[in-house]
Amino acid sequence: MNSLLVDTGFLISLADPTKLHHTAAVTYFKEALAHGVPIYLSSIVASEFHVKQPVSDLGLRNFIVLPFNIDHALRCGDLMKHMKRDAGDDRVSVKDDVKIIAQCSCDEISHLITLDEQTLVKYLARFNELKLVSTKAILLSNGFDASWFHNGQAQLIP
């Protein structure tokens, strides 16, 4: 893992100790810091989080804030040409997800951590299958897995 972009579900879990995946989110966050993995916070994700809670509550000094710029916009448009939105998937959510994927692609962010298996992970997998992006998804709902920080290698003895 050379870098990590966090999504809104991750931030909500990180910030709220009552959330089901809070412990996993905190562990991923601490491990990323301990391993010197840059943690990116997309301005798109920040705006989504800020709807319910001030983004400044997150302690932004640990994040590299990633604005959505013209390179990201152009990459997003290119990606959108290669996909069709599934019936039932919210148009606005999918557009935001593809914007986040475009940011990962442009900035060569190796991993994206999310709870959104329904759209974000699904569309990321499709773009990976088409060899349009190489970012890997980490599903927070699967719990903490240290192998992400060791090139996919799991410990033989726990």
Polypeptide structure, described:
The mean pLDDT is about 95. It is globular, with a radius of gyration of 15 Å. Strands 3-2-1-4-5 form a 5-stranded parallel β-sheet. It starts with a strand and ends in a 19-residue tail after the last strand. The chain has about 160 residues and is an alpha/beta fold. It is about 45% helix and about 10% strand. The chain has helices at about 10-15, 20-35, 45-50, 70-80, 90-105, 115-130; strands spanning about 5, 40, 65, 110-115, 135-140. Helix 5 crosses helix 6 (about 115-130).
Number of helices: 6
Overall mean pLDDT stands at: 93
The secondary-structure class comes to alpha/beta
Shape: globular
Helix-strand string: EHHEHEHHEHE
Strand order in the sheet with the most strands:
3-2-1-4-5
Poorly predicted runs of 5 or more residues? none
Q: Secondary-structure map with pairings?
A:
Elements: E1 4-6, H1 8-15, H2 22-34, E2 39-42, H3 43-50, E3 64-66, H4 70-80, H5 91-106, E4 111-114, H6 117-129, E5 136-139
Parallel strand pairs: 1-2, 1-4, 2-3, 4-5
Helix pairs in contact: 1-2, 1-3, 4-5, 5-6
